[in-house]
Structures are given as structure tokens and as C-alpha cells.
Design goal:
- The protein is α/β, with parallel strands linked by helices and 493 residues long.
- The strands form 3 sheets. A 6-stranded mixed sheet has the order 3-4-12-9-10-11, with helices on both faces.
- Strand 5, helix 6 and strand 6 form a beta-alpha-beta unit.
- Helix 6 packs parallel to helix 7.
- The protein is globular and about 65 Å long.
Length: 493
């Protein structure tokens, strides 16, 4: 028996109601939608209890393929090609099935998503997205320019996923001094003709402002094939839905026909809210998840859940979990759209007000829906260090500060017998040596991390006094000019 049917008619629309009927290829090669919104599937397929029982025997890689088949039409990527692309994407991971579920003391289950090349969960979705991009670019004999803003892990992962590809240039902007040494070196030591790295004197939220303006320039986007590999890109969210399904099938799937579907609580370190969005989608697909968005001192998502206050603080606070030092969790727009019954007009009005004033009080009905789908918590740096120490003392298992944000909730609110819970581990502790040392712990660095300090670096600085939008625009234009000259020369030769 087949476990799923290949999607034939899946189309995509904007969360702000201005764009509809787009193909998977269209949204794969996009950043924000032309109306400023974010792309989402026009419909969400459901998974039956029978399908879940059948899928329980599948590996993570097989599950990911099944989920992608529901959202990528056969005529765009045939199933046999999709299987090959996913297999190639995950071939460089350090463990056989790319992810691993670890069960520790006191019913603590941790889903390790950090076994890719840059030791972060983003390698999973990024490597798959890059394979899909290359498939279409080679098929159509076209090029693309990827523009990425990062709070830490996204930049390095995006670079490695397309490193050296002749069909792609990538421009990455990171907040100088606000990422860890390893995160920075993973970006600045990646020297290739198609890699362009900028260090900006500001926060990751500051970086998002000029990037939104560049993506809103339809002419620039068209001429340079400008696209995003942030979780703005729908494909990133699509791949991340598989994390939640894999955890559910490992921990909570029904055993026999007629069994009720048990609930799985998932604790998710939350910054840009991409993983939470993926969890919400999987919940709408029929998986009984209880989602908990865990944040650090940058607590906008926590405040939104607790009181409906979706407003930025005056500044982004630097914490021991820098990848979630975010005050503009842009994927929450997707969550609001889903929970509002896909009301694009309402979402457009809400998000335009938020972008204009940085303040928003959620409508009562939307806040109520949010509370039904999400709970939340906020963790201080002291709480992060305390959790890292306790997890090591109890299990001799070292966690990164972001994973500690999730595990803190487990220790503060132990589960009762019969309940199931999973904490998402988003990165290796090797990327956060300072936090490990502050916790009074030690770790053996992987050889690849040790080697970073010996490598040459290359990047440009964006000073506060610079016009970031103009400088990045000029660089994108110059990349295009160089590539066109090269193509002309090749043609003459």
C-alpha cells in the first residue's frame, strides 16, 4: 500500500492576500512575496491515523520525502528525482539518518538536529533547499543570487549549502560582534567566487530592514534572480515540518488500528519562529502536538502568547543564545495567517502597522487562537547556564545554550507519567564555547571547528554611517555585471 499520493495541484499564496496561484518553483526562488507578505500553501493536507501507523516504520529521510511529496507537485519535481535530491542533500551528515532522538534521565527526550556540516539544525532544510534550487537552475539554464540576513547559524549554513556552485551567488549579512566566534568564522572563512559576506554594525533586526526593501524592488529581483534562504523561504519551513513528524512517530504514534492519537509536547527554542511555524502546520495536518515556544530575554513571542502584546522592545538584548536574539520574529506572520483562517487582509493590516510602529496588540480572537495552539516561556542567561550544568550532571550530556532554553522548561515543569515530551536541540555545543565555559563545563572541539582559526578570512564591513541598502544593491548589481561579462567571454571563446 502506498503511504501517500503525490501532490498534483498544490499552489501557494501570500499571507497578505495580494498574490495567489504560485507554483512551488515560484516560491522556492522568492524571498518575501511582492505584496510584502510570506508565501504559504493555499491548502494543508491531512494525515490519517492509518498513514501515521504506516509511516512509523520509515526513516527520517523517507518521512521527509513523503512530506515533500505532499507539497511539491509531481510535474515540478518527479518523485524519483525528489528522493535522489533529498538523499544527496543529507549525504554529508555525520550520522546515518541525519537526525537522532536521545532519551535521557527523567523522561527527557532530545531531538538532535545538528549533525550537518555547520553543526546547526538549519543544515537540514538548507541542504535540501539548495538541492532543489540546483535542480531547477540546471534544468532551466539560469542563475540566482541569494540574499541572506542572519542572527548566527543561518549564514554559515546557507553558504555551505551552495558553496562553489556555478549557478548561484550568495550575499550574507551578519551582525558584527553579535555572533559567536565559530559562527563568524564559518561565514568569513568560506572563500569562493560565489560567496560574498558582510559584517554589519547593528543587530539582526537592523539587517532585516534593508533586505526587505531590496526584495520589494521587483526589477532588482527579476534582473538578478534575487531570492532568500532565510526561513522567509517556504522550502525551509516545509523541510522543518518533518522534524515534528519524526519526533511524534518515534515517541507517540498509535500502535494499532483504532487507538486514539496520543499527544506529544514539543519544546522549541524560538527566534525567527520558523520551527514553530512548521510545528503549527504539522498540527493542522492532524498531528496532536502541544507546542511550547521557548525564548530568551528577547521575549516578544512569549509576550504575544501571554498577553497579546506583539511589540518590539527598545533594543535586541545580547544573550548566551545569540541565534534567537530576535525582536522581529517574522515567521509569526505565517502563524497569524494560519490561525486567522487565512485572512490575508487582516494580516496585511496587522503586519503593516507592526512594521510602521514596531508595536501591535493582537485582536482578541487572534490572541485566543494563539493561546490554544501555543504556550510559551522565557529564560534568563542564568537559567540557561543552570540548565546546561544540570543536564550534564544528570546525564553527562552537553547541550548548547539554545537547546538549554527548551530543556529549562522540562526541568521547571516535569511531565506526569504517561505524557510524552520532546526538546528540540538546534545546535552543537561546540559552536558556543563561551557559554559552555561560563557554565563551568568543558568540551572536546571537533577537528573542523579547531581548524577554523587557521583559515584565511574575507568579508566587508557595513558601518552604521553607511547606507546599507545602497551598498548591498550596488554589490548585487556588480555581481551581475561580472557574471554577464564572464558569460560573454565564454561565448566568444
Amino acid at each position: 500500500m502506498k503511504t501517500s499520493a503525490k501532490c498534483k495541484k498544490m499552489r501557494y499564496c501570500s499571507t497578505r492576500a495580494g498574490v495567489q496561484g504560485r507554483s512551488f518553483r515560484d516560491v522556492l526562488f522568492s524571498g518575501y512575496a511582492p505584496d510584502g507578505g510570506m508565501f504559504m500553501p493555499e491548502s494543508v493536507p491531512s494525515l490519517s491515523a492509518e498513514t501515521l501507523r504506516l509511516w512509523r516504520r520509515l526513516s527520517y529521510q523517507q518521512l521527509l520525502c513523503e512530506i515533500c511529496c505532499l507539497y511539491i507537485p509531481e510535474q515540478e519535481i518527479p518523485r524519483h528525482h525528489l528522493q535522489g535530491l533529498i538523499s544527496q542533500a543529507l549525504s554529508s551528515f555525520s550520522i546515518p539518518d541525519a537526525v537522532r532522538l536521545v532519551q535521557l534521565k527523567d523522561s527527557l527526550s532530545i531531538l538532535e538536529l545538528f549533525h550537518g556540516e555547520t553543526l546547526a539544525f538549519k543544515d537540514l532544510a538548507m541542504s535540501c533547499t539548495a538541492q532543489f534550487l540546483q535542480y531547477f537552475l540546471r534544468k532551466d539554464r539560469k542563475r540566482a543570487t541569494i540574499l541572506v540576513g542572519t542572527s548566527g547559524d543561518t549564514g554559515g549554513s546557507a553558504i555551505r549549502s551552495v558553496f562553489g556552485l556555478s549557478e548561484v551567488d550568495i550575499v550574507v549579512v551578519f551582525p558584527h560582534g553579535r555572533v559567536t566566534r565559530v559562527q563568524e568564522l564559518q561565514m568569513t572563512t568560506s572563500i569562493a567566487d560565489n560567496v560574498h559576506v558582510f559584517a554589519a554594525d547593528g543587530t539582526s533586526d537592523d539587517i532585516d530592514v534593508p533586505l526587505r526593501k531590496l526584495f520589494a524592488d521587483a526589477d532588482l529581483v527579476h534582473r538578478h534572480g534575487l531570492m532568500s534562504l532565510n526561513s522567509v523561504n517556504w522550502c525551509r519551513i516545509l523541510v522543518q515540518t518533518a522534524h515534528f513528524l519524526f519526533a511524534y512517530l518515534q515517541l507517540s504514534a498509535p500502535q494499532a488500528e483504532g487507538d486514539a492519537l496520543p499527544v506529544l509536547e514539543v519544546l522549541v527554542p524560538t527566534g525567527g519562529a520558523g520551527n514553530i511555524t512548521a510545528g503549527c502546520i504539522m498540527k493542522l495536518m492532524g498531528i496532536p502536538l502541544r507546542l511550547v515556544a521557548m525564548v530568551n530575554a528577547n521575549d516578544i513571542v512569549h509576550r504575544a502568547v501571554q498577553s497579546g502584546d506583539f511589540s518590539m522592545s527598545n533594543s535586541v538584548k545580547q544573550t548566551l543564545a545569540p541565534a534567537i536574539d530576535i525582536q522581529d520574529p517574522y515567521n509569526m506572520e505565517r502563524v497569524f495567517w494560519l490561525l486567522s483562517g487565512r485572512d490575508g487582509v487582516m494580516v496585511k493590516n496587522l503586519m503593516e502597522e507592526f512594521q510602521r510602529t514596531h508595536k501591535l496588540t493582537l485582536p482578541e480572537s487572534l490572541h485566543q487562537q494563539l493561546c490554544e495552539v501555543l504556550s510559551s516561556g522565557s529564560v534568563s542567561d542564568d537559567g540557561i547556564l543552570e540548565t546546561m550544568r544540570r543536564c550534564w550532571q544528570d546525564n553527562h550530556y552537553l547541550i548548547c545554550p539554545h537547546t538549554a532554553v527548551a530543556v529549562w522548561r522540562h526541568y521547571q515543569s516535569p511531565i506526569t507519567p504517561g505524557e510524552n515530551r520532546c526538546c528540540i536541540a538546534t545546535a552543537s555545543p561546540a559552536k558556543f564555547q563561551e557559554a559552555v565555559q561560563k557554565a563551568g563545563l568543558t568540551l572536546d572541539l571537533p577537528k573542523a571547528v579547531q581548524a577554523l582559526d587557521m583559515l584565511e578570512t574575507r568579508y566587508e564591513v557595513l558601518e552604521q554611517s553607511d547606507d546599507w541598502e545602497s551598498k548591498l544593491r550596488h554589490h548585487i548589481e556588480s555581481i551581475g555585471s561580472v557574471r554577464r561579462c564572464g558569460e560573454t567571454a565564454e561565448t566568444r571563446d
